[in-house]
Design goal:
- It is a single chain.
- By secondary structure, the protein is of the alpha/beta class.
- The protein contains five helices and five strands, in the order βαβαβαβαβα.
């Protein structure tokens, strides 16, 4: 089973998936320093880019089809521990990239990681609707 991840961070999700026998095909992380951590932890298939700039159809051309897409968009605006919590334009933009990835890649499995209040964001609703078809 091949995995693609968005907002990949240091690769901890990918490491867990590898423990279960899943093979990471590609990962997207916008922060070069964090992507270097991913590279050391998981491998060189990390793409340093903003998810808005990724052509998911080109990832398929380069790395092949994936079975599983995992996205972990920033939770800082959905966390009630943040005094300035609340959905932002960046949250909606990130969710739009996830929707594009789902619709382009049509993975067999999709998982989303975020904090509980994210379920009330339009971002989450847009992603949920993309999964529902």
């Amino acid at each position: 089973m091949k995995l693609g991840t968005m907002f990949s961070g240091g690769g901890l999700f990918d490491i867990g998936a590898m423990q279960a026998g899943v093979t990471p095909a590609w990962a997207v992380e916008y922060d070069p320093a964090v992507a270097d951590v991913y590279r050391r932890n998981v491998g060189d298939h990390i793409i340093v880019a903003d998810v808005d700039d990724v052509r998911f159809d080109k990832l398929t051309d380069q790395f092949g089809e994936i079975d599983w897409l995992h996205a972990s968009p920033s939770c800082k605006h959905a966390s009630r521990g943040n005094p300035d919590w609340g959905e932002t334009a960046d949250d909606l933009r990130s969710a739009s990239a996830v929707v594009t990835a789902i619709r382009t890649l049509r993975p067999y499995f999709f998982t989303l990681e975020n904090v509980w209040p994210y379920r009330n964001f339009k971002s989450f609703i847009n992603i949920r609707n993309a999964v529902a078809g």
